[in-house]
Structure formats: C-alpha cells, structure tokens
Design brief:
It is globular, with a radius of gyration of 14 Å. It is built from three helices and ten strands; from the N terminus they run E-H-E-E-E-H-E-E-E-E-E-H-E. By secondary structure, it is an alpha+beta fold. About 25% of the residues lie in helices and about 40% in strands.
Length: about 140
C-alpha cells in the first residue's frame, strides 16, 4: 500500500499557468521527460505533447483553469530524474506538488520522501510570484 505525499501551497493572489511555469523553469525545473511533456486538463485527463508545443500546452491549461477545472503538469528537477505532478486548483490561489515521479527517498528512512529536498527547490521560485504558505504531508 502506498503513501500520501504532497506539498500544498497557498498564494497571496491569483496565479496563472504561464507565471508559475515560467518561475519554475527559470529555477531549474523542466516539463520535458522521455521526450514528452505530460499535462492534465479537464476531469483529470492526462495528455502528452511534444516539448516544442509547450506554448499551446500552457494555453490549453490556462483555458481549462479559467473554465473551473484543476490543471497539472509533470515537472522534473534538471537532470536528477526526480519529479512530480504540479497541480493548480480552480480557485487560482492554491496548488499542490505530488512527488510521485521517481520519488526521492529520505536517506536512512527510504519509506519516507525527502520533502525538504523538494521544498528547497520549489519555494524560492514560487515565493517570487506570491507563495504565502506551504504544508507538507507524508503518511501511510
């Protein structure tokens, strides 16, 4: 049986797909893995796209977010291979990161996720666009 692991975030004001991804990409995150960009739109429908279609992916995500849907995108830290799904909720002030794509285990306690590693790479760039608070969870 798996664990529930996530980093939940609240922002000071409304966020937009382009601002969030721009900030994350500038810091060293990428949406390209295995020659694809994987993203989620209406009704948790996951899609795959070519990396050179990122502009249209962001447009489709923004359109679905404006329609009241939760959207998401798989992101990875540089060449580490560690990543997860970044979700933006329809209120535009909350988001979550689920480190479930090649999860980085905590040294000495591999059943736990090294949440500090992810927080250190997510919080600084997101703070620049108004990140107000985070809450982490790692439980059976």
């Amino acid at each position: 049986m798996g664990r529930t692991v996530d980093i939940d975030m609240t922002f000071e004001s409304a966020i937009h797909v382009d601002n969030v991804l721009g900030s994350l990409f500038k810091a060293g995150w990428t949406a390209v893995w295995d020659v694809q960009t994987r993203y989620m739109v209406a009704d948790f429908e996951w899609k795959a796209s070519r990396p050179d279609d990122l502009s249209s992916v962001k447009g489709e995500m923004e359109e679905n977010l404006s329609a009241g849907d939760v959207v998401g995108i798989a992101i990875f830290w540089q060449d580490s291979g560690y990543g997860g799904n970044f979700l933006i909720y329809d209120d535009r002030k909350t988001a979550s990161f689920l480190p479930e794509l090649n999860r980085r285990p905590l040294a000495g306690a591999a059943e736990f996720t090294d949440l500090g590693w992810y927080v250190a790479r997510l919080v600084p760039p997101l703070r620049e666009i108004g990140l107000e608070s985070i809450a982490t969870t790692d439980k059976p």
